[in-house]
């Protein structure tokens, strides 16, 4: 309260700058566990303060994991071997599977990228921003491009993380499966980039908070942290986000692209659950507690911090205070639904790998995430099941 009264006395530009800095402090103060803070702080400095993802040059992130060789080639994980078989069978070639000749017009009212009502334009008007019909469509085009750009950047992270994890895991069947995931993620980078480049013609830079999470995963030496971060958290959230967009978009090429990507992602999260469920049981109490806290706090970061500031900066900087944009994006119906679908997928997986223990339950309850506890985890859901569920709900 005092914070907002004080900043409201400043000119808008300065007020926005102070708001940005206070938000970084908020992110860090949300990380209550000192070990989680220590693990994420260097990535936080690179992403939030130095904005390494936005400098227009490639980023070099050092990796510290050990590659695990096994010269005896054991058949050690039948469930992973089965997943490997399924992944081989279900490979698809984006050139022939997707109808790239579809003409995509982001302003065609018969095939909107996102439905009317995704953004609450009345709320925006109450803040003094009145957009005509064309401007509304343009804003929806920007927001869709922003979301797909973040998916693309996430997929690049997933491609490298899948390669690292394939080197680092000790299960041989997991390595074979991992090779298919590397291929899948390569294809995802390809299709999202192609869609953005050829159809939307608008690529946004990586969101600072997404950069922090990817940077932390890439540089952590522990394979299970990479796994937890990428296969459970980022992939789980991506699966939810893809699902929401699949359900909402009326643009046929995007819809079919997402349908194929969701099928692959369902295998990836399934693998994450298989690999971590047993592993967590073998950890010491202290190690498990760290992972419980880490996943809770990263889930909160993801929920609270994907606020499309890059769209704000393009459209409303200098017109609307940053904190008012934050409230608008948080409350707007489409983004609310995004969060809901994401956690419907994520929370059951965290439960299944044993990271929502009685110690954590009150914290999940306090932030409203306990309602998602009863859902099916990824080892009980395949891609067809997820698509059928989304089609039913559409
Ligand atoms: Fe992917
Ligand atoms: Fe994936």
Q: Low-confidence runs (pLDDT<50, min 5 residues)?
A: none
CA-CA gap between termini: 40 Å
Considering the protein shown, what is the CATH homologous superfamily of the largest domain?
Ribonucleotide Reductase, subunit A
- CATH topology (fold) name of the largest domain: Ribonucleotide Reductase, subunit A
Give the helix/strand class. mainly alpha
Helix content: 55-70%
Please tell me the CATH architecture of the largest domain by its name.
Answer: Orthogonal Bundle
Estimate the strand proportion: under 5%
Cα shape = globular
Report the biggest beta sheet as strand number plus sense, adding barrel if it closes. none
Q: Quick one: how many beta strands?
A: 0
Oligomeric state of the chains present here: single chain
Mean pLDDT, all residues? 88
Order of helices and strands: HHHHHHHHHHHHHHHHH
Q: What is the radius of gyration computed over CA atoms, rounded to a whole number of angstroms?
A: 21 Å
Hetero compounds: fe (ii) ion
């Amino acid at each position: 309260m005092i914070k907002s009264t004080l900043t409201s006395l400043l000119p808008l530009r300065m007020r926005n700058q102070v708001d940005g800095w206070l938000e970084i402090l908020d992110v860090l103060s949300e990380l209550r566990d000192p070990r989680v803070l220590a693990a994420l702080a260097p990535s936080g400095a690179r992403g939030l303060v130095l904005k390494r993802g936005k400098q227009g040059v490639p980023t070099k992130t050092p990796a510290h994991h050990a590659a695990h060789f096994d010269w005896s080639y054991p058949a050690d994980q039948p469930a992973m071997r089965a997943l490997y078989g399924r992944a081989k069978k279900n490979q698809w070639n984006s050139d022939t599977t997707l109808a790239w000749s579809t003409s995509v017009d982001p302003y065609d009212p018969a095939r909107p990228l996102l439905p009317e009502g995704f953004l609450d334009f009345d709320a925006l008007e109450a803040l003094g921003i009145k957009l005509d019909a064309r401007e509304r469509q343009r804003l929806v085009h920007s927001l869709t491009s922003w979301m797909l750009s973040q998916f693309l950047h996430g997929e690049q992270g997933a491609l490298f993380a899948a390669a690292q994890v394939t080197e680092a895991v000790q299960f041989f069947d997991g390595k074979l499966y991992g090779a298919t995931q590397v291929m899948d993620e390569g294809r995802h980078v390809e299709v999202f980039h192609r869609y953005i480049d050829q159809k939307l013609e608008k690529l946004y830079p990586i969101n600072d908070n997404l950069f922090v999470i990817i940077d932390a995963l890439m540089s952590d030496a522990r394979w299970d942290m990479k796994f937890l971060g990428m296969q459970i958290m980022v992939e789980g959230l991506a699966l939810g986000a893809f699902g929401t967009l699949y359900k909402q978009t009326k643009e046929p090429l995007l819809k079919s692209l997402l349908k194929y990507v969701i099928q692959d992602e369902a295998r990836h999260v399934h693998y994450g659950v298989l690999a971590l469920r047993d592993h967590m049981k073998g950890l010491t109490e202290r190690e498990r507690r760290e992972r419980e806290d880490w996943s809770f706090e990263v889930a909160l970061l993801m929920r609270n911090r994907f606020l499309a500031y890059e769209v704000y900066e393009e459209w409303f900087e200098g017109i609307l205070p940053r904190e008012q944009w934050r409230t608008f994006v948080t409350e707007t119906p489409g983004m609310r639904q995004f969060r809901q679908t994401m956690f419907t997928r994520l929370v059951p997986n965290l439960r299944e790998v044993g990271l929502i223990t009685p110690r954590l339950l009150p914290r999940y309850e306090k932030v409203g995430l306990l309602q998602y506890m009863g859902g099916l985890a990824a080892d009980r859901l395949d891609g067809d099941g997820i698509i059928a569920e989304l089609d039913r709900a559409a």
